[in-house]
Amino acid sequence: MDNKSTIQVKNLNLYIDKQQILKDINILIPANKITVILGPSGCGKTTLLKSFNRLTDLNDSVKIDGEVIINNENIFTSKTDVSLIRKNMGFLSQRPYPLPMSIYDNIAYGLRISGRRKKKYLDKRVEHYLRQASIWDEVKDRLKDPASCLSIGQQQRLCLARGLAVDPDFILADEPTSALDPISSQAIEEKFVQLKQHYTIVLVTHILRQARRIADYVVFMYMGEVIEHGEAHEFFENPKMEKTKAYLKGFYN
Amino acid sequence: MPLWQKNDKKMNFKKIEEKLFKVLMYLSTIIIAIALLSIIFSILIKGIPSLSWEMISQTPKGGFYFGKEGGILNAIIGSLYLAASSTILAVIIGLPVALYMNIHLSKHKKIVNTIRFFLDLLWGVPSIVYGAFGFSLMIYFGMRTSLLAGIITVTLFIIPIIVRAIDEVLKTVPNGLLEASLSLGATKSETAYKVFLKQCFPGVITAVLLSFGRAIGDAASVLFTTGFTDSIPTSLNQQAATLPLAIFFQLSSPVAEVKNRAYASAVVLTVIILIISVISRLLVRKYQKNKIKF
Predict the structure, then answer these.
(1) Cβ separation A86–B182 shorter than 8 A
(2) Predicted ipTM beyond 0.90
(3) What is the value of pTM for the model shown?
């Protein structure tokens, strides 16, 4: 199996101020598939997602034990270069956070940080990634305009392009469509389905229908625990646990 | 009873309450406006007749403070030197502090709030105390009253202002922007200078303007440290005149003509601050467009 694009979580426990947020998580997120982390609000989905690129570091009161293994290496060691881990994961948040600069510079930002500064190269890459996120046609005539003038839906696609531009193996998405209108949401979903042959996608959502539409693999969480995980088809047709069945019927919403 | 018709008793009370507060707000706005305008008018009315080209283009000649010819160019240049250098120094020292507090220390809320508390204390310390502190520093290092000593004192005096003013702007940046930038592989420092600074640039300009205003307008902190002289300083080791002190010395003269010149000097000080404000407004407008609204 290609370990480069899988995420293996082993005995992961996470505490915030003595309150346990994640309880003994053991899952393997498969490569080049869309894995959906599903569960009601406040069950620890987002925290689990953020532990994959160590954004959990930003909170001082977070204590972690256990392992997250990417490319055969545990990322929770003091030797880990956090920037390299994060660069390897495109991150989409609940609402888009474009950088306060032009559309062009938003994409070029990550490239410039990794030392790519030649204008010709940047021009080519910027166009490539904007096309990949299907936003090129909308912005090609105004690349120098500030990103703040785009609509929310466009901004989220810009953020996707920006994430792809640093050449990650993974895409982590934290309810990326929750601030978007239905058409923009659909655009993002379609994009994910196209992108999964090149990237391992982890999507956090509480929208059951969205999970049904695009998931290949499902992780169901409730109160900080993984209740059930498995192939999407199996998960939705033959749920094994009582809690899963109840959730699929809509009890926890 | 019809649902949408006015219930007179209830409505009357609510209406009166609303009216009362409206009137109070109007009144306080008007009082403040009148106070400010009357300050500006009294300066203009008393100052403009004495204002002349000679006043702003010449240094004081012998007997200037007794009504003879000359001008306050020494104080204009001295104040500009002093305020500009100390503002630049304060930005160089203060900006990294504010960024560090909000980005690198963002997860240590307690430490940051302690720093904020002490900066607020320092902001509240009267400038004469900074003057006295600067003076004792000078004695310790064996310096004489000079432009340099003034610059150091005023820099110390405005650093808390600039740090806290920038800090207040940086506080408004949402965590998501930090996460977004870090997720692209940026370090915290890269995020600070390339993202946070850009997002907050208009606010930073305002903070700089605020400090410049304090630096150029303060008399107490420069009284012991910069001294006063009739000539334009040509090196950091010389004494320098400043506008607030020039106003003070002229105003304390018994000669009416000289007293009026104090108001003319005040006009000059006000115009300098006005020019700086307008320039910074223009800068703000230019950089506002990149700011992401959350």
Answers:
(1) yes
(2) no
(3) 0.85
